[in-house]
Amino acid sequence: MTFSGEPATSLGLLLLAVCCQAVSGLPLLLNKGSSLAQRAGVALMVAASLTGCAGALGAVFFPVTGTWLLPTGLPFGGLEIGVDALSALFLLPIFIVTGCSAVYGTGYWPVARHPEHGGKLAFFLGLLSAALTVVLLAKSTMLFLMGWEVMALAAYFALTTEDEKHEVREAGVLYLITAHLGALALFATFSLLNAATGAYIFPAPGSLSAAGPLATAVFLTALFGFGMKAGVMPLHIWLPSAHANAPSHVSAILSGVVLKTGIYGMMRVFSAFADPPLWWGALVLVLGCISAVLGVAYAIGQHDLKRLLAYHSIENIGIILIGIGMALIGANQGWEALVALGAAGALLHVVNHALFKALLFLSAGSVIHATGTREIDLMGGVARRLPRTALLFLVGAVAICGLPPLNGFVSELMIYLGAFNSIGAAVGLGPSLPALAAPVLALVGGLAVACFVKVYGVVFLGAPRSPEHEAGHEAGVGMLVPMGVIAACCALIGLAPGLLVPVLNGALGAYGGTLALQQGIAHLVPFGWLSVLGIGMILVLVFLWGFFARRAARLPVPVAPTWGCGYLRPTPRMQYTASSFGAILVGWFALLLRPERHREEVNGLFPVHASHESHVPETVLEKGYLPFLEYLFEKAQPVRRLQHGKLNIYIFYTFVTLVLLLAITSGQ
């Protein structure tokens, strides 16, 4: 291995972190069922996270000028790694989320209770973490694609930990198919980039021209390949089932950081073009608006707690795409402020979403661990038995709704400022699109608040709806501590967003935003006032809590069931359900969501049985992709006759193909 440029401690720390991640599953794999081996693996993951965070921050404040190169002697060149401020920004949430998830797993998935799955899960969780890091460190496209494939396979095996369940196997197969469809598109992307640059490396920012069909082909294949991984609607079909059926700490990694590799790839490829056409930015922004609105609309109609959170991942990927679309439009129009606000808002939301979505999935895992179900309508009154989990889930809910004083508010505000910045400066429909994103963000924020009011009200408040699923005891320290660490990160970014200004400026510089090098993002965003606002809100909340707590201590507090609308004998089933909370909002989007209702009417004076059920299907998959694939399968029946299942026939096919290829090439 050779090093070109100035030696860097940061890159060495990151390589050490990769090694620790990759071997973290070996102790438990070699000593199955050992709690000591599980703790040793977790210690390696924590060491990797601490080392990796130090290396990533070092790369921001002490930029690395060189790369490590491992010669291979193959036509595609060597395997090259390096780190800059852009990859460092994406690395930070990876190390935080994977480290906290590993610790969480000791309480949520203790090997003593899961000896048959523990070794497999630990090994592939570590391998997935290492592959994520390699993808972000790769400077040669072949190393990137190798890491991408390992990431896909490790995620599949971690997702299908409980492979004895039919729904888990189905979710895993769907994920694996879509992951490789996206990978095929990326092979096309990098082949086209090689045709444009003559090298198997990522192009430098602004080094390519966007004119011509070759650039268009690169853009479209990258948007499809990376969009499939990121879960951009309508390429999101794998995401809801995968996140719902994976173990909760695996869901936190899938949603928090695996999706962001798609965003990272988009930003790397898009920033390579100096003059992106207007329609590039418009298409990305429109896809972002669709993903954001429909993602939260689908979430409102869900009854499965983890599937609901999965659809909110699509919503937040949409918000990130809105920021990227703004940056592309700004680059086309020469608006440096729009480039900086759009790209910086998207980058900060990458970090924020990784944190608050991981917190929500881990909190949901604590609830599922205590109740034994993912069905929202079977829960209720969980906050009484799990008060700390309820508080941590509330922190995540406030953050994902984009409300102050937590981190989601800061990144969404930056994208809002980008939208407002384009008002008055744009002439024509295309350049005006960033301004139209503001009402979309407002709609998404309102719907997100409504959705989490539903979730929190049905799950944590009221009375238990099902005796067999009444909440058990609070999560242990091993689960609460990592949740608390992530919640603290959410609060820190919300209360002191100025701490991330150097990270954002460095990432903007690596992305290609010239304004970051001239004035910095702090010139455009009032980070100081945001801190004042956040701290002021915290003080007001503390004062109000103290006031009402003292008042409640002086007054008698009667204990009685919730008013049952006049019924003489109310039961826990006579409470608002997830369906009733979201019925009106689901009705607004009924044309797209296509909700299904099954009702048995009340008949006669003494009815025997009556019921009402509602269900929002995965419309894109069930009403779009699957019927189309069934049609193709039916039409392809004549071709399938060529598949005899006999090895000698397949060898004959191979021989005929080689003869034809030789005949074609010999005539050239």
From TrEMBL:
<feature type="transmembrane region" description="Helical">
    <location>
        <begin position="440"/>
        <end position="463"/>
    </location>
</feature>
<dbReference type="InterPro" id="IPR052175">
    <property type="entry name" value="ComplexI-like_HydComp"/>
</dbReference>
<dbReference type="InterPro" id="IPR003918">
    <property type="entry name" value="NADH_UbQ_OxRdtase"/>
</dbReference>
<feature type="transmembrane region" description="Helical">
    <location>
        <begin position="144"/>
        <end position="161"/>
    </location>
</feature>
<feature type="transmembrane region" description="Helical">
    <location>
        <begin position="42"/>
        <end position="65"/>
    </location>
</feature>
<feature type="transmembrane region" description="Helical">
    <location>
        <begin position="12"/>
        <end position="30"/>
    </location>
</feature>
<feature type="transmembrane region" description="Helical">
    <location>
        <begin position="337"/>
        <end position="368"/>
    </location>
</feature>
<feature type="transmembrane region" description="Helical">
    <location>
        <begin position="576"/>
        <end position="593"/>
    </location>
</feature>
<keyword id="KW-0812">Transmembrane</keyword>
<feature type="transmembrane region" description="Helical">
    <location>
        <begin position="389"/>
        <end position="407"/>
    </location>
</feature>
<dbReference type="Pfam" id="PF00361">
    <property type="entry name" value="Proton_antipo_M"/>
</dbReference>
<feature type="transmembrane region" description="Helical">
    <location>
        <begin position="121"/>
        <end position="138"/>
    </location>
</feature>
<feature type="transmembrane region" description="Helical">
    <location>
        <begin position="483"/>
        <end position="504"/>
    </location>
</feature>
<keyword id="KW-0560">Oxidoreductase</keyword>
<keyword id="KW-0472">Membrane</keyword>
<keyword id="KW-1133">Transmembrane helix</keyword>
<feature type="transmembrane region" description="Helical">
    <location>
        <begin position="413"/>
        <end position="433"/>
    </location>
</feature>
<feature type="transmembrane region" description="Helical">
    <location>
        <begin position="308"/>
        <end position="331"/>
    </location>
</feature>
<feature type="transmembrane region" description="Helical">
    <location>
        <begin position="647"/>
        <end position="665"/>
    </location>
</feature>
<keyword id="KW-1003">Cell membrane</keyword>
<feature type="transmembrane region" description="Helical">
    <location>
        <begin position="85"/>
        <end position="109"/>
    </location>
</feature>
<dbReference type="InterPro" id="IPR001750">
    <property type="entry name" value="ND/Mrp_TM"/>
</dbReference>
<feature type="transmembrane region" description="Helical">
    <location>
        <begin position="208"/>
        <end position="228"/>
    </location>
</feature>
<feature type="transmembrane region" description="Helical">
    <location>
        <begin position="249"/>
        <end position="267"/>
    </location>
</feature>
<feature type="transmembrane region" description="Helical">
    <location>
        <begin position="173"/>
        <end position="202"/>
    </location>
</feature>
<feature type="transmembrane region" description="Helical">
    <location>
        <begin position="524"/>
        <end position="548"/>
    </location>
</feature>
<feature type="domain" description="NADH:quinone oxidoreductase/Mrp antiporter transmembrane">
    <location>
        <begin position="138"/>
        <end position="421"/>
    </location>
</feature>
<protein>
    <submittedName>
        <fullName>Hydrogenase</fullName>
    </submittedName>
</protein>
<feature type="transmembrane region" description="Helical">
    <location>
        <begin position="279"/>
        <end position="301"/>
    </location>
</feature>
